[in-house]
TrEMBL record, chain A:
<comment type="similarity">
    <text>Belongs to the binding-protein-dependent transport system permease family.</text>
</comment>
<feature type="transmembrane region" description="Helical">
    <location>
        <begin position="111"/>
        <end position="131"/>
    </location>
</feature>
<feature type="transmembrane region" description="Helical">
    <location>
        <begin position="265"/>
        <end position="292"/>
    </location>
</feature>
<dbReference type="InterPro" id="IPR050809">
    <property type="entry name" value="UgpAE/MalFG_permease"/>
</dbReference>
<keyword id="KW-0812">Transmembrane</keyword>
<feature type="domain" description="ABC transmembrane type-1">
    <location>
        <begin position="78"/>
        <end position="296"/>
    </location>
</feature>
<dbReference type="Pfam" id="PF00528">
    <property type="entry name" value="BPD_transp_1"/>
</dbReference>
<keyword id="KW-1003">Cell membrane</keyword>
<dbReference type="InterPro" id="IPR035906">
    <property type="entry name" value="MetI-like_sf"/>
</dbReference>
Automatic annotation (TrEMBL), chain B:
<feature type="domain" description="ABC transmembrane type-1">
    <location>
        <begin position="101"/>
        <end position="315"/>
    </location>
</feature>
<dbReference type="InterPro" id="IPR000515">
    <property type="entry name" value="MetI-like"/>
</dbReference>
<feature type="transmembrane region" description="Helical">
    <location>
        <begin position="236"/>
        <end position="256"/>
    </location>
</feature>
<protein>
    <submittedName>
        <fullName>Carbohydrate ABC transporter permease</fullName>
    </submittedName>
</protein>
<feature type="transmembrane region" description="Helical">
    <location>
        <begin position="36"/>
        <end position="58"/>
    </location>
</feature>
<keyword id="KW-0813">Transport</keyword>
<feature type="transmembrane region" description="Helical">
    <location>
        <begin position="105"/>
        <end position="124"/>
    </location>
</feature>
<comment type="similarity">
    <text>Belongs to the binding-protein-dependent transport system permease family.</text>
</comment>
<dbReference type="Pfam" id="PF00528">
    <property type="entry name" value="BPD_transp_1"/>
</dbReference>
Length: 300, 331
């Protein structure tokens, strides 16, 4: 009797599970899977709008040929997007881990600091961020700045460069670091969600581990690298994936895909572009996930 | 010990060492110096980061109330000499502010509530109501996060242009679907089906959060005779307030700031993000008298664009920041 009852509850749960997931599943099939396949189909065809719908004509690989060999800007924009991503992701991860460690400690005014640091999650997204890039007056007020494109906060590293050269670092590293300082606002404003994820992870690390380490005589520095770092290494993977996706969300390539479709009404080429874009992102994600997950430590 | 020192006439070395050791043990100067040094370093770093974040906002506030002649007055740094509301009035008109804010508010609130419901349901389904294939379907959720919206842009556009469910509408009316563009329906439909902006992420957040709640909670409810629906509504949801607050805030604000879907589905609607998108075209330097005037108006416009969500954030941030402490945003 008891056994039959548990089985029926399990079955009921499974039934309700299907029911709970149904809205999403419907949405996935209608608004994701079907458009996804259609988009693939469009990328191999020429699409013309007619008054009562649209008609497709199969053209083979013509659209892809156009994307790679005819269009002057696509490959260049794509390379630029990938390079920017590769430059920014390590900086964002490092910065957000660092900030999360600071914010995880107990001190007066912690709530205020957190509230301010999460502010860019709210404010620097979408259209606001677009309007803010290249803010003329703000950089004028910063006076020292000449770089209008990316650096609108008016903060700039003037003394850092000679200092690092004096310290005997190689040119590439120096320019990478100073470039990072110049882009500091961009980096801070795009690492809000990552800080959030790291912070949640840091707070879930059991305090008994730190107590044991302290009794054994570990310093704070050692505790960070031997306890904190391995414990939150799965989150580094999560954050890298999130940062990569986020950095590809809005850039020159996406704008190009959009304008090709709705300004030039070249739907087929636009679909081909978006598919190349999707494949490039997927390859980058697969490679980075593979490389990082080999080094990730799982506690349980 | 005092007597001992006096009789000898000089301080014995071992006694002095003892005194120093005792003093060291009780005050621990090196540890204290390290402690205070760390506090100072931390404070400098945090204040620096906060400054970088707040600087653009302070700049905008300072610029918005500034008269045009103050821009070329080098003695004016932060506080405007000729205080004016002209910029704000002008941008108010250009943005069609009242209508734009009302429309955007209605759109954002409805979509975020719809997304909340659909994503919470799906998240709970994936977390606790396991069925055959649910693991695979959750993998599909992750896949939807990865696909850039541009990949399915053209078909989605055409889908709403000639909207039809399994050809039913065409069957009854004989037309080729209904044009749902230039209305809020595309937003509402995709939100209700958990396919809106970044909804995969919300499902992920909900699933992780529900998984982190203790199982006893549910079992107690079942033992007391509650059904699955009742358990979800009365026991699990009230415990998920941090996750709900986080998702609500994210979905509201990302919808508020989004111009991609707005331009795709409702390109002629008076919505704040679209009006802001158009602003640089309205106030070109040749119309308003120079690039600095354009920039002045752009700054004012951005400030007015973020003002409503800034107010919202002031109220919601307590839940939001607190939710970090408890939420299961962990991978």
């Amino acid at each position: 009797m008891a056994k039959r009852r548990t089985i029926s509850i399990e079955r009921k749960k499974a039934m309700f599970g299907v029911l709970f997931v149904t809205p999403w599943l419907l949405g996935f099939i209608l608004l994701m899977a079907v458009p996804f396949i259609q988009s693939l189909q469009f990328s191999f065809s020429k699409l013309t709008l007619t008054p009562d719908g649209y008609s497709l004509k199969f053209v083979g690989l013509d659209n892809f040929h156009h994307v790679f060999f005819v269009d002057a800007w696509y490959v260049r924009n794509l390379t630029e997007a990938v390079t920017n991503m590769a430059l920014n992701v390590p900086l964002i991860i490092f910065f957000s881990l660092f900030t999360a460690t600071l914010l995880a400690q107990k001190f007066r005014g912690r709530m205020l600091a957190r509230a301010i640091i999460f502010l860019p999650v709210v404010l620097a997204s979408g259209v606001i961020a677009k309007l803010d890039s290249g803010n003329f007056l703000a950089s004028l007020m910063g006076a020292a700045s000449t770089d209008l494109e990316s650096n609108y906060s008016g903060l700039r590293s003037i003394e850092l460069e000679p200092l690092l050269f004096e310290a005997g670092l190689s040119r590439e590293i120096v320019f990478y670091l100073t470039g990072a300082v110049d882009r500091i606002y961009q980096i801070i404003s795009s690492s809000g969600v990552q800080i959030l994820i790291f912070l949640a992870g840091l707070q879930s690390v059991s305090p008994s581990l730190y107590e044991a380490a302290k009794i054994e005589g570990a310093t704070g520095y050692e505790a960070f690298w031997k306890i904190t770092f391995p414990m939150i290494s799965p989150l580094i993977l999560t954050n890298v994936v999130y940062t990569i996706i986020d950095s590809f969300y809005n850039n020159n390539v996406t704008q190009m895909i959009q304008s090709t479709a709705f300004v030039n009404l070249n739907f087929g080429v636009s679909a081909a572009m978006s598919w190349v874009y999707f494949l490039v992102i997927s390859i980058i994600l697969v490679i980075s996930t593979y490389l990082i997950s080999k080094r990730v430590f799982y506690y349980d | 010990m005092k007597g001992f020192l006096k009789t000898n006439g000089r301080i014995s070395a071992s006694a002095a060492l003892q005194a120093v050791t005792r003093w060291y043990d009780s005050y621990n100067p090196v540890e204290k110096a390290k402690h205070w040094l760390w506090i100072i370093v931390r404070a400098v770093l945090l204040i620096g980061i906060c400054f970088i974040i707040l600087y653009p906002i302070i700049t905008k506030v300072s610029l918005a109330f500034r008269d045009k002649q103050d821009m070329f007055d080098s003695t004016v740094v932060w506080l405007p000499r000729n205080f004016t509301l002209d910029n704000i009035k002008l941008i108010f008109g250009y943005l069609n502010y009242t209508e734009a804010v009302t429309n955007t508010f209605i759109l954002s609130l409805t979509t975020s509530i719809l997304q909340l419901v659909s994503c919470a349901l799906a998240g709970y389904g994936f977390a606790r109501l396991k069925f055959r294939g649910s693991g695979f379907l959750f993998g599909v959720v992750i896949f939807t996060i990865v696909v850039p919206p541009q990949t399915i842009m053209v078909p989605t556009y055409l889908h709403y242009r000639f909207f039809d469910v399994f050809g039913l509408i065409g069957l009854f009316t004989g037309k080729h679907g209904v044009n749902l563009l230039e209305s809020f329906w595309p937003f509402f439909i995709s939100s209700a089906l958990a396919m809106g902006l970044k909804n995969g992420l919300y499902i992920f957040i909900f699933r992780q959060f529900f998984r982190s709640l203790p199982k006893d909670l549910e079992e107690a409810a079942y033992v007391d005779g509650a059904g699955i629906l009742k358990t979800f509504a009365r026991v699990m949801l009230p415990n998920a307030v941090p996750a709900i607050a986080t998702v609500m805030l994210f979905s509201f604000i990302w919808q508020w700031n989004d111009s991609y879907f707005v331009n795709l589905f409702a390109p002629n609607y008076t919505l704040l993000s679209r009006m802001l998108d158009l602003l640089p075209g309205i106030i070109r330097p040749e119309y308003v008298g120079g690039i600095s005037h354009t920039s002045l108006y752009l700054n004012t416009g951005t400030l007015m664009g973020i003002l409503p969500i800034f107010v919202l954030y002031l109220f919601a941030q307590r839940y939001f920041v607190e939710s970090v402490e408890r939420t299961g945003l962990v991978g």
